Amino acid sequence: MKRSVWRDFTIGIIEENPLFxxxxxxxxxxxxxxxxxNAIFMGVAASFVMVASNILISLIRKIxxxxxxxxxxxxxxxxxxxxxxxxxxxFFPAGYEALGVWIPLIVVNxxxxxxxxxxxxxxxxxxxxADGLGKGLGYTLALLVIAVIRELxxxxxxxxxxxxxVSLKGFQPPQILQSFPGAFFTFGILMGLLRKLQRKGE
Amino acid sequence: xxxxxxxxxxxxxxxxxCGVSAxxxxxxxxxxxxxxxxxxxxxxxxxxxxxxxxxxxxxxMLEESSEALEKGKEVVEGLEAVFDVSKxxxxxxxxxxxxxxxxxxxxxxxxxxxxDGTIAGIKVLDIxxxxxxxxxxxxxxxxxxxxxxxxxxxDPLKISTDIDAISGATITSRAIAxxxxxAAKVFKEFAVSGK
Amino acid sequence: xxxxxxxxxxxFLINNILLIRFIGLCPFFGVSSRFETSVGMSMxxxxxxxLATLVCWGVWNFLLDPLGVGEFLYxxxxxxxxxxxxxxxxxxxxKVSPTLFKAMGIFLxxxxxxxxxxxxxxxxxxxxxxKLSLEYxxxxxxxxxxxIGIALGFSMVIIMFAAMRERIxxxxxxxxxxxxxxxxxxxxxxxxxxxxxxxxxxx
Lengths: 202, 195, 203
Description:
The structure holds 3 protein chains of 3 kinds. By secondary structure, chain A is mainly alpha-helical. A two-stranded antiparallel sheet of chain A has the order 1-2. Helices cover about 65% and strands about 5% of the residues of chain A. Chain A has one domain (about 5-145). Chain B has helices spanning about 1-55, 65-75, 135-140, 170-190; strands at about 60-65, 80-85, 90-100, 105-115, 120-125. Chain B is an alpha+beta fold. In chain B, helix 2 (about 65-75) crosses helix 4 (about 170-190). Chain C has helices at about 1-15, 25-30, 35-65, 70-95, 100-105, 110, 115-125, 140-170, 180-195. In chain C, helix 3 packs across helix 4 (about 70-95), helix 3 runs parallel beside helix 7 (about 115-125) and helix 8 (about 140-170) crosses helix 9 (about 180-195). By secondary structure, chain C is mostly helical. At the A-B interface, helix 4 of A face helix 1 of B.
């Protein structure tokens, strides 16, 4: 049975959400989620790399000999990551500074190589785009959820792109949410709750 | 023979992929690099203007002194830059940029010192490693930084005897005082005696 | 000498790559459920990471930087170095020492996508990524010490954590929190403990 393109797209958002269900691409998710702004940068950057590499890999999948497909995938992904790295340095210096070593590390985000190997190398361009977009969106949304909890809870306000979006008055924020342990706690508890919800649905 | 050809094909494909990728990246780099360079230049100029503002003197000029920096590094580890400040060709003071360790990273500050050895002003440049809402209060709370202004660099400027620390942020406060002390050291040792 | 020690300590404890910086978490949660696997993984990481930094240091200082292409080719170059290194090490170990291969062989392919290796190589070799308040000169000695510190920090935490998870496994936990979620919360508590090292020796 063949899945529809739309299904390829939507499955990445909840059921096969890269972060909460598949538990891959974790490192970056925890590290950059202390601020909503950084989460957006990271989500968009990773999604771009994933969609772009999915497109290219599905285009060249038939001419690449099987033995060297992994090195080729790595080069393709590394090139797109570098493009993101250079462009962010030029156009979004604040984001570049904030993400730091995490931009080159998108290359080893297991999620991207995983999708290239498991999906784009076996499917056509349109479906690969849908898959990349879906997984990218799922990843970005998951990042955003964590970042909103951590920034709003940890600092009492959300400041993104120099605008204060939400500000809680008279709320003494528990700073632990902003710190490193807070990322683990937030993620662990979110994941547990999500599983509980999923089990109830069954 | 067939096997050799096959391996040749493998390595050629791989080389081709790498070559194309390198070319594409070089092209991207040639587009983004001028933009980055321009921004860096602009930030440098803005930084200079910001440093001058500490002096509150109109028409002053900044000039980086690499000589004082080199000598100063021997006595102050975190020293980053030393600027001579002059007005109408006459030297009126120095700005010393230096850093020391705070709670979670370097605490960097620019300290402006008048020729007569009084502190003209301080600008905290980087406290990104400090805890938000705790260490960051050294710049958020008016009055802490102002305590230094006008004091002579020959004073000890010790936290909690000469300078009131921000309560709860003693480490960051101490790091700022350390920066000021380091700047004073540089000023006393080199910046003046050389001229 | 003192500075080398501080660099080591900063990488090993104070900025522990797993608990403070979240780099390399995927293999961390993947293999830390059993004690033996975590020991095998640690060995492989220490070995590959040190080699990778060594080679990347050479590639950067003798190839990329002198040619002026480092700024835009370092990501593909470093990751290819690491990937081929892993393959090579796997081949050598399989030939030379079957016992060692049995112990850490299956973890080697996993390491290619272990961000910790790339992070260690990038930070210790390429200027611009070093973020600690210590001075750092990008010499080979410091790069190696830094990497070894990271690798040992990774090993210590992963082994410690495996011991913990084996006990958590038999503890009464709400069903939804079994497995990953409780592991995250445990990691959070360990991370909290590691925060205590912050500011040690002024690093």
